[in-house]
């Protein structure tokens, strides 16, 4: 699967995005923490929050499309699942189709990073195809919503989605056609449509399994699928060997790139919310005034309401309550708050790493 991500800003409205015009303090360089993220009132870039909102919307699109079908995934369904406003959605995407295409591109990019890594570790065509196919099957098991988005829902998402899908298929066909260079002399020349037939058969099997339940293991099918792939190029003997060749043991990994760090929380993620969480995370025991200053919130009433809201969600705790009269509040992250704050950092780092890795 030799693909790369598209420009993630493609298709968004032409107006400036939130956070594109940075303050003079940010341009000059605000203090940075050990993890490289800026600190202070101007510290957290607004695009950091915009990126998290975008990831939430794309994850919601994948989930809603898997549940309802791409055609029935409305903007109302998507923003409700993502926990963002319609305004935020339309700041980032032109319409529902634009959002679906972005989600499709992201899903392909994640699959490509996994498949290309495995594919590139082998030398012989047969082993490269086997490694790449196994990686694809594992990805489909670990990320069924993303797999369904690519394999199933793209077929019913309109001409632009079909065009994107065709681009991906072209790369797959190219990789499979490489098998002609390793064809033994005793094996007849493969027919012109050999690659299309082999790739179509594999995708048809995956398509059927994803529609049936989405939870049925796919890796046990490696031998049968590989047998179909190598038959036209290496002959019946090689196909028979693949049919009985055991699949290697795979240690499943949790993919953070699609993980929603605020999943299950009854709140919308906003720029201020993330800045407050990051401020408390970098300086436990901070007072209301300190948090307001570092998070860039001028209204003390607003920061008090936000802290109360975060406390009710179990994300922060006020260790200053009950101290001597007049003592300031001392806010810290709860274990759940630490998990959310850490997940936000990991999520953003993973997205940046994904873009760099696939673009290479």
Task: Explain the overall architecture.
This protein has 360 residues and is mostly helical. It folds into two domains: 41-259, Orthogonal Bundle (Tetracycline Repressor, domain 2); 271-345, Arc Repressor Mutant, subunit A (Orthogonal Bundle). It is built from 15 helices and two strands. It has helices spanning 24-28, 46-68, 75-82, 86-92, 96-120, 125-142, 144-151, 159-177, 194-212, 222-234, 236-244, 271-282, 288-295, 300-312, 335-359; strands at 316-318, 331-333. It has a two-stranded antiparallel sheet.
Key descriptive features of the protein:
360 residues; mainly alpha; Tetracycline Repressor, domain 2; Arc Repressor Mutant, subunit A; 2 domains; two-stranded antiparallel ribbon; 2% strand; elongated
Give me the count of strands: 2
General form: elongated
Order of helices and strands: HHHHHHHHHHHHHHEEH
Kindly provide the radius of gyration, computed on alpha-carbon positions and rounded to a whole number of angstroms.
24 Å
Distance between the termini: 14 Å
The fraction of residues in strands falls at under 5%
Total individual domains: 2
Strand order of the largest sheet: 1-2
CATH-derived topology of the largest domain: Tetracycline Repressor, domain 2
Layout: helices, strands, pairs:
Blueprint: H1 24-28, H2 46-68, H3 75-82, H4 86-92, H5 96-120, H6 125-142, H7 144-151, H8 159-177, H9 194-212, H10 222-234, H11 236-244, H12 271-282, H13 288-295, H14 300-312, E1 316-318, E2 331-333, H15 335-359
Antiparallel strand pairs: 1-2
């Amino acid at each position: 699967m030799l693909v790369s991500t598209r420009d993630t800003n493609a298709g968004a409205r032409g107006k400036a995005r939130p956070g594109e015009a940075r303050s003079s303090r940010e341009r000059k360089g605000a203090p940075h923490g050990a993890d490289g993220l800026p600190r202070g009132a101007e510290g957290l870039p607004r695009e950091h929050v915009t990126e998290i909102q975008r990831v939430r919307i794309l994850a919601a699109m994948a989930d809603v499309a898997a549940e309802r079908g791409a055609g029935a995934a409305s903007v109302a369904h998507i923003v409700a699942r993502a926990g963002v406003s319609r305004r935020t959605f339309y700041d980032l995407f032109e319409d529902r189709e634009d959002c679906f295409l972005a989600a499709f591109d992201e899903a392909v990019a994640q699959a490509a990073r996994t498949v290309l890594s495995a594919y590139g570790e082998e030398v012989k065509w047969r082993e490269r195809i086997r490694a790449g196919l196994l990686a694809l099957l594992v990805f489909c098991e670990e990320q069924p919503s993303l797999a369904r988005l690519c394999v199933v829902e793209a077929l019913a998402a309109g001409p632009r989605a079909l065009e994107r899908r065709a681009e991906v298929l072209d790369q797959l066909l190219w990789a499979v056609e490489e098998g002609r260079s390793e064809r033994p002399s005793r094996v007849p020349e493969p027919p012109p449509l050999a690659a299309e037939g082999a790739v179509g058969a594999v995708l048809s099997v995956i398509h059927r399994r994803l529609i049936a339940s989405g939870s049925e293991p796919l890796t046990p099918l490696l031998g049968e699928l590989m047998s179909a792939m190598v038959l036209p190029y290496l002959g019946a003997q090689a196909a028979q060997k693949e049919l009985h060749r055991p699949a290697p043991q795979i240690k499943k990994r949790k993919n953070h790139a699609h993980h929603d760090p605020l999943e299950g929380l009854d709140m919308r993620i906003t720029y201020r919310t993330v800045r407050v969480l990051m401020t408390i995370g970098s300086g436990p025991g901070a007072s209301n005034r300190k948090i307001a200053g570092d998070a860039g919130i001028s209204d003390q009433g607003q920061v008090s309401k936000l802290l109360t809201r975060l406390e009710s969600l179990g994300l922060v705790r006020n260790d200053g309550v009950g101290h001597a009269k007049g003592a300031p509040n001392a806010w810290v992250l709860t274990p759940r708050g630490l998990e959310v704050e850490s997940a936000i950092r990991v999520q953003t780092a993973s997205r940046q790493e994904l873009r760099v890795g696939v673009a290479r």
